[in-house]
Amino acid sequence: MKAKISEIFSSIQGEGLYLGKRQIFVRFYGCNMKCAYCDTIYHYGDSPKTGTVPVKELSINEVINEIASLSLVRLGGTPLYKSTVSLTGGEPLVHVGYLKLLLKKLKSLGLETYLETNGTLPNALEDVIKMVDIIAMDIKLPSSTHDRSFWDEHEKFLKIAKGREVFIKIIVTGNTKKDEFEQAVRLIKNVAQTIPLIIQPVTPCGIVKKASNTKLDNFYNHASSVLKDVRIIPQVHKTMGYR
């Protein structure tokens, strides 16, 4: 079995609760959404090569070999750091059959697994949940993404994900609507108040403009009155020049 992989690389995690942690990233090609603010726009569609990044069709063993070359760096026979593999995209759960096999192999090697997902494919998550250590789940607000709403999918997804370590990320733009944000907060509360929420100010691109500090403060104050752990964290890797 093979899947389309855009890139495999080592870098720091630039978003969310694991900000600044060294991870190995496996970026899958393909997504079931087209968010207006997407910063990996070449990772969906049918063409085997879009933008400036080539897409490779790799077997499980080929992916594992590339991960090994990045993670098993040794000094005196001791690993320099505990390797966490971030499965990102695109949307990794689009490739659920392949992902299930890859996760099984990663776990057999003792590697920690970190799934970055748009939180819209609950049935696919259910197939792999037992092999995922950490879930970084987006709640996609239609006023931010310019796509349709996924409230039912998000709720079902989060109910499955709460059995593992999970946190929520909501990207906020200049167009993000207050009622949608509050609906997302209610959704999280109804599943578990203790699930951390990251409010992520959008990195402006194209027609997508940044949110004002006043909007971010208002959203933070509302969410903090309902949930136990709320933070505002931007895409730090962008400002630092990391991939």
Instruction: Determine the number of helices (DSSP H or I, runs of at least 4 residues).
Output: 8
Strand order of the largest sheet: 5-1-2-8-9-10-11-12-13
Rg from alpha-carbon coordinates: 18 Å
The CATH superfamily label reads Aldolase class I
Sum up the structure in keywords:
single chain, 243 residues, alpha/beta, TIM Barrel, two-stranded antiparallel ribbon, 13 strands, globular
Give a short summary of the structure.
This protein has 243 residues and is of the alpha/beta class. It has 8 helices and 13 strands.
Provide an overview of this structure.
The protein is α/β, with parallel strands linked by helices and 243 residues long. The chain has a single domain, classed as Aldolase class I (TIM Barrel, Alpha-Beta Barrel). The chain is 32% helix and 26% strand. The chain contains eight helices and 13 strands. It has helices at residues 60-71, 96-108, 122-128, 142-145, 151-161, 178-191, 213-224, 236-240; strands at 2-12, 22-28, 49-50, 53-54, 56-59, 74-75, 78-79, 84-88, 112-117, 134-138, 165-172, 197-201, 230-232. The protein has a nine-stranded mixed sheet, with helices on one face. A two-stranded antiparallel ribbon has the order 3-4. 37% of the residues are buried. The model is unreliable at 42-51 and 73-78 (pLDDT under 50).
Architecture blueprint of SSEs:
Elements: E1 2-12, E2 22-28, E3 49-50, E4 53-54, E5 56-59, H1 60-71, E6 74-75, E7 78-79, E8 84-88, H2 96-108, E9 112-117, H3 122-128, E10 134-138, H4 142-145, H5 151-161, E11 165-172, H6 178-191, E12 197-201, H7 213-224, E13 230-232, H8 236-240
Parallel strand pairs: 2-8, 8-9, 9-10, 10-11, 11-12, 12-13
Antiparallel strand pairs: 1-2, 1-5, 3-4, 6-7
Helix pairs in contact: 2-3, 3-5, 5-6
